[in-house]
Specification:
Blueprint: H1 2-10, E1 17-24, E2 29-39, E3 42-47, E4 53-57, E5 61-65, E6 89-94, H2 98-101, E7 103-112, E8 115-125, E9 132-140, E10 156-158, E11 164-167, E12 186-190, E13 212-215, E14 219-225, E15 232-237, E16 243-248, E17 284-286, E18 292-297, E19 309-315, E20 318-326, E21 329-336, E22 343-348, E23 354-358, E24 363-370
Antiparallel strand pairs: 1-2, 2-24, 3-4, 4-5, 6-7, 7-8, 8-9, 10-11, 11-12, 12-13, 14-15, 15-16, 16-17, 18-19, 19-20, 20-21, 22-23, 23-24
Pfam family, one: GSDH
Signal peptide: 1-18
InterPro entries: 6-blade_b-propeller_TolB-like, Glc/Sorbosone_DH, Quinoprot_gluc/sorb_DH_b-prop
Length: 371
């Protein structure tokens, strides 16, 4: 307890504050450093070519953090968001050719006629790094929902095929995940211009949305491409237990809420079945929950022992989960920094360090340094 308390106090110490003794884990020894503070519920981040970091804050701000940990004023040009419940300004991703185009992609909760929905937008970052221009809407995950501001999903990743993949939550309305005329509870696949690729699985099918790549998802907030196999991995919140890691396949149904390892928050099982014909099983399940948010594969040089790992930012129990992998299999699990802070996102920097975003009104960016 004393060790965790000292680490938590150090979160307030400001940029580049070294934090107590090294942490000895199964495959690496590291120190936790506070890279930047003064952020309100940071949600996602992306490294720019100059080594600085763009960070979204859920209330609707986008900031740039310099390599020495200085946090900018909010960038201009960010569209208004629905910052209520779990909504707000959520994921950010750079275009694969960002160095040439300066194009960025953002996912947000948006208020529209009829309620709120998940929205994907594209914009260009100014050469001065202080604002966005040319903001355009690529997709609204319709239909909008009037009740509740939960389960927006909202993670973005580019696949090896050059297409954009977007996760959407089922907005806490379970039946939406199984509906093919509804974009909630899905993994969506688009061109970077927001068009539907002609080889999407439901193109031309009556009553189905052609943007859908997979369905039957509850609240997916983690997406990452396995750099060794090219497969798309997804982390998904269960209810009370039943959090999942899935490998996303074309046209597959991942079962929510027909099958689940989870329970209702008041106790009973969601479903008697954890597997069913025609539905794709997860490759890893947590019971009880860890509440998995952002995920990142480690392929850096700073921690050779961690190569091949998938890191999972965990909200409850708070901390960082490291999964050992071989190809497209999970072979082991290690819990790190348990109880330190609610972790919203994890990413690997160009320096090979691991960066963590803490989900708090006084949020921070932490860095794991070799020790």
């Amino acid at each position: 307890m004393q060790r965790r308390a000292l680490l938590a106090l150090a979160l307030l110490a400001g940029p580049a504050a070294a934090q107590e003794a090294p942490v000895v884990s199964e495959r690496a020894t590291f120190r936790v450093t506070t890279f930047a503070t003064g952020l309100e519920h940071p949600w996602s981040a992306a490294f720019l070519p100059d080594g600085s970091l763009l960070v979204t804050e859920r209330p609707g701000r986008l900031r740039r953090i310099t390599p020495d940990g200085r946090v900018s004023a909010p960038l201009s040009g960010v569209p208004q968001v629905e910052a209520a419940g779990q909504g707000g300004l959520l994921d950010i991703a750079l275009a694969p050719d960002f160095a040439r185009t300066r194009e960025v992609f953002l996912c947000q909760a948006a208020a529209v006629e009829g309620g709120a929905l998940t929205r994907l937008i594209a914009a260009r970052l100014a050469p001065t790094h202080d604002g966005l221009s040319g903001v355009r809407r690529l997709l609204d995950a319709t239909p909008a929902q009037a009740s509740g501001r939960l389960h927006f999903g909202c993670r973005i990743v580019f696949g090896r095929d050059g297409h954009l993949y977007l996760s959407t939550g089922e907005r806490n309305q379970r039946e939406r995940a199984q509906r093919l005329d509804d974009l909630a509870g899905k993994i969506i696949r688009l061109t970077r211009e927001g068009r539907v690729p002609p080889d999407n699985p439901f193109v031309g099918r009556p009553g189905a949305r052609p943007e859908i790549w997979s369905y039957g998802h509850r609240h997916p907030q983690g997406l990452a491409v396995n750099p060794w196999t090219g497969s798309l991995w997804e982390a998904e919140f269960g209810p009370r237990g039943g959090d999942e890691i899935n490998i996303i396949q074309r046209g597959a149904n991942y079962g929510w809420p027909v099958v689940s390892h989870g329970r209702e928050y008041w106790g009973p099982r969601i479903s008697r079945e954890t597997s069913a014909p025609g539905m794709t099983d997860p490759i890893h399940v947590w019971v009880p929950s860890v509440s998995p948010s952002g995920i990142a594969f480690y392929d850096g040089a700073a921690f050779p022992g961690w190569r091949g790992s998938l890191f999972v930012a965990a909200l409850n129990t708070p901390g960082l989960v490291r999964l050992s992998t071989e190809g497209d299999r999970v072979t082991g699990e290690e819990r790190l920094l348990t109880g330190l802070a609610r972790m919203r996102h994890v990413l690997v920097g160009p320096d090979g360090r691991v960066y963590l975003l803490t989900d708090s009104p006084q949020g921070a960016v932490l860095r794991l340094d070799p020790a």
